[in-house]
Protein: Bifunctional diguanylate cyclase/phosphodiesterase
Amino acid sequence: AKDVAANSYRLFDETMNNQAIELVSMAAKLKTAIEKNEFSLYLQPKIDFKTGKVRGAEALLRWFPDKGPPVRPDLFIPIAENTGMIVEIGEWVVREACLMAKRIQDLGHPDFAVAVNVSAVQFKHGNFEHIVLDALYVSGLEPQFLELELTESLFLEDEYDIAGQIGRLAAKGISFSVDDFGKGYSNLGNLGRFDIKTLKIDQGFIFTMFDSPKNTALVEAIIGLAKSLGLCTVAEGVEDEKTAAKLREVGADYGQGYLWSKPLPIDEFIDFVSPARNS
Ligand code: C2E
Ligand code: CA
Ligand code: CA
Ligand code: CA
Structure:
């Protein structure tokens, strides 16, 4: 028994070690990924349930290292956050997103809006207000067409004047949404302190919407809550017609998901919103 224990200990130790090595090497590669132009920003359409038309898109970061396979954002974003590199990467993302949105508007979609994911770290250590305003200025995009998606944990923060930073940017016309709403520790009282326009209902609720009447009721309740607070709703992870029909029926404002499109590189996205350009 002693031998077995010793072996399993060694095995465990080795796995830990490999994980640590992988983390460090990924962090090192991430460091040069901007200079080497290895990032790409994809766009996923948001559909207006009332008109059936594309209202805007969420910008989603993709990393294609020169060597090796693509790395999923779920894997590299946390490393970028922990090392602080998300500040520089996030600056690139917001600039690129504004330029893309302006380009799409100029192709004949004057109301097109882009949504950008923002990490808490960017608010804490990033001269964030300046970066956002500069990205708008450089691109020529008007502030009402930029939306920043924040996760619920940010609204628990009391430091760094986050409510103030959001308030000042909102006063300039930029809008804010709560991402993955309902997934984390929703502190509704806390939410009230912030200038929020939209709740993005976490895709977990959407995937399981028809599993039980209670789950359906939950989605309806979130939409009802949003409406009574004067907030818009976006349902994420809409994968089939049945789900879309139900969401439309219960009054969700916008939908996003594979039913309409997965996230696309800019050229494919432009074809998606302007199919006529192809003919
Ligand atoms: P998120 O902000 O919640 O983004 C939604 C995720 O769901 C995206 O994954 C999207 O591709 C995926 N998705 C969209 N529609 C469907 C659907 O119908 N079904 C399913 N199963 N999935 C769907 P992605 O692109 O892998 O991004 C993962 C997460 O990485 C994002 O979650 C976001 O938290 C983070 N992320 C991505 N880009 C950025 C960025 O530029 N900055 C920051 N800070 N985080 C980012
Ligand atoms: Ca998001
Ligand atoms: Ca989300
Ligand atoms: Ca998320």
In short: The beta strands are 39-48, 54-63, 113-117, 146-151, 175-181, 198-201, 232-235, 254-255. The radius of gyration is 21 Å. Residues 58, 117, 149, 179 surround calcium ion (ligand 2) (CB under 6 Å).
